[in-house]
Automatic annotation (TrEMBL):
<dbReference type="InterPro" id="IPR005730">
    <property type="entry name" value="Nsp_de-COase"/>
</dbReference>
<keyword id="KW-0210">Decarboxylase</keyword>
<protein>
    <submittedName>
        <fullName>Carboxynorspermidine decarboxylase</fullName>
    </submittedName>
</protein>
<dbReference type="Pfam" id="PF00278">
    <property type="entry name" value="Orn_DAP_Arg_deC"/>
</dbReference>
<dbReference type="InterPro" id="IPR009006">
    <property type="entry name" value="Ala_racemase/Decarboxylase_C"/>
</dbReference>
<dbReference type="GO" id="GO:0008295">
    <property type="term" value="P:spermidine biosynthetic process"/>
</dbReference>
<dbReference type="GO" id="GO:0045312">
    <property type="term" value="P:nor-spermidine biosynthetic process"/>
</dbReference>
<keyword id="KW-0663">Pyridoxal phosphate</keyword>
<keyword id="KW-0745">Spermidine biosynthesis</keyword>
<dbReference type="InterPro" id="IPR022643">
    <property type="entry name" value="De-COase2_C"/>
</dbReference>
<dbReference type="InterPro" id="IPR029066">
    <property type="entry name" value="PLP-binding_barrel"/>
</dbReference>
<dbReference type="GO" id="GO:0008836">
    <property type="term" value="F:diaminopimelate decarboxylase activity"/>
</dbReference>
<dbReference type="GO" id="GO:0009089">
    <property type="term" value="P:lysine biosynthetic process via diaminopimelate"/>
</dbReference>
<feature type="domain" description="Orn/DAP/Arg decarboxylase 2 C-terminal">
    <location>
        <begin position="173"/>
        <end position="364"/>
    </location>
</feature>
<feature type="binding site">
    <location>
        <position position="296"/>
    </location>
    <ligand>
        <name>substrate</name>
    </ligand>
</feature>
<keyword id="KW-0456">Lyase</keyword>
Length: 408
């Protein structure tokens, strides 16, 4: 069966954005680009029959949740009590919860909120099963799952590899407890990180080999996240085909819970130059911090793209320089905290940077806002939305009270 390409809405051209009109610093979500991603996600959901929910660990900008609901996103996956509350209060759909471990203090509230509740181990399931059984007897409908570890992954960075050696996440086949499956109606796995559908297909082959004997007893299987279906070049027909085949083979519902796919290429971090210093190399100091506002740059690590800037000659083989940047002006781009390593890297601009110039980091919505801190008390960027019609709306500003509230 041939799957037609979805009709995608137009996006606002970057060259038409008036960066100077956006107060700095700010995380800026582009509604038009979010809607394009949601159109693709809705297409996959409709064609494959899977349920696709949003993973809050990657995208939890709740001011955008009304837009998500327009495209049939029926729920969210949470990794804590706080995220579960946010899902119930703001997403207003199904609440799926998974955490590596639940505490005695928080579990009753999590159970009250959850529609799907996944345990990381059979010991946790055995510990909390009496509470689940009591809630079900009182009329609570909750689907219980066990996270499994297929012991197979194609993730290059150990920090983001859920199935790496000695992983604490999920039950391996060797530790699987068939005698404790009563009351469990689903399995969950998560081994992908920004991967294409061919990786999912190979992962499912291993999952079936290791856990296939238990699948006939299940009503649903959660494929976890890491499905970067909104990235250009992603093989959507294969994804749809793989999901359909799995659903039909095992007669189960399939759930996907990507995070990056929702926020992928949907916005920017807008910053301004506060000072330019001239030591051995020129350095531009911005009103944002790498460690406080872009921690993945240091953790992953990775090199973000700056609009209108290119790479120095020694890095040109990794990415083409920006138009006009070759032979231009090089700057070390850094933040304003006292951390010596609060530096993004060296970039080439086609003109000299001046105090007040905007420096715009690309693709800064997914897995960025969710990790920010108030380190050093530096100003936290606003959160804003560039509306589909072109208007800009500030939806959140941060001040002293937010900084103080994190301390005691």
């Amino acid at each position: 069966m041939t799957v037609a390409d979805p009709a995608l809405p137009a996006v606002i051209p970057i060259q038409e954005v008036d960066w100077a009109a956006i107060p700095s610093p700010a995380f800026v979500l582009d509604e038009s680009r979010l809607r394009r991603n949601l159109s693709l996600i809705r297409h996959v959901q409709q064609e494959s029959g899977a349920q696709i929910i949003v993973a809050f660990k990657g995208f939890s900008m709740w001011s955008a949740f009304p837009v998500l609901r327009e495209y049939g996103i029926s729920g969210a996956t949470a990794s804590s009590l706080n995220e579960a509350r946010l899902a119930a209060e703001e997403m207003q759909g199904e609440v799926h919860v998974y955490a590596p471990a639940y505490s005695d203090a928080e579990f009753p509230q999590i159970l009250e909120l959850a529609d799907h509740l996944v345990f990381n181990s059979f010991s946790q399931w055995a510990r909390f099963r009496p509470q689940v059984q009591a809630a079900r007897e009182a009329g609570k409908v909750v689907h219980i799952g066990i996270r499994v570890n297929p012991e197979y992954a194609e993730v290059e960075t150990d920090l983001y590899n859920p199935a790496g050696p000695f992983s604490r996440l999920g039950v391996t086949r060797r530790e699987f407890r068939e005698e404790l499956l009563e009351g469990v109606d689903g399995l969950h796995f998560h081994t992908l990180c920004e991967k294409d559908s061919d990786t999912l297909e190979r992962t499912l082959e291993v999952l079936e080999r290791n856990f296939g004997e238990f699948l006939p007893r299940m009503k649903w299987v959660n494929f976890g996240g890491g499905h970067l279906m909104t990235r250009e070049g992603y093989d959507l027909p294969r994804l749809i085909r793989v999901i359909r085949a799995f659903r039909e083979k095992w007669d189960v519902d399939v759930i996907l819970e990507p995070g990056s796919a929702f926020g992928w290429q949907t916005g920017w971090l807008v910053s301004s130059v506060l000072d330019v210093v001239h030591n051995v190399k020129n350095a531009a100091l911005l009103d944002v911090s790498v460690s406080a506002h872009m921690p993945d740059v240091l953790e992953m690590p990775y090199r973000p793209r700056i609009l209108g800037a290119g790479d120095p000659p020694e890095l040109d083989h990794h990415r083409e320089s920006a138009e006009g940047a070759a032979g231009g002006h090089s700057y070390l781009i850094g933040g304003t905290t006292c951390l010596a390593g609060d530096v993004v890297g060296e970039y080439v601009f086609d003109r000299e940077l001046q105090i007040g110039d905007r420096v715009v980091f690309d693709d800064m919505i997914h897995y960025t806002m969710v990790k920010t801190t108030f380190f050093n008390g530096v100003k936290h960027p606003d959160i804003g939305i560039l509306r589909q019609g072109g208007g800009y709306e500030v939806v959140k500003t941060f001040g002293y009270e937010e900084f103080k509230a994190k301390l005691s």
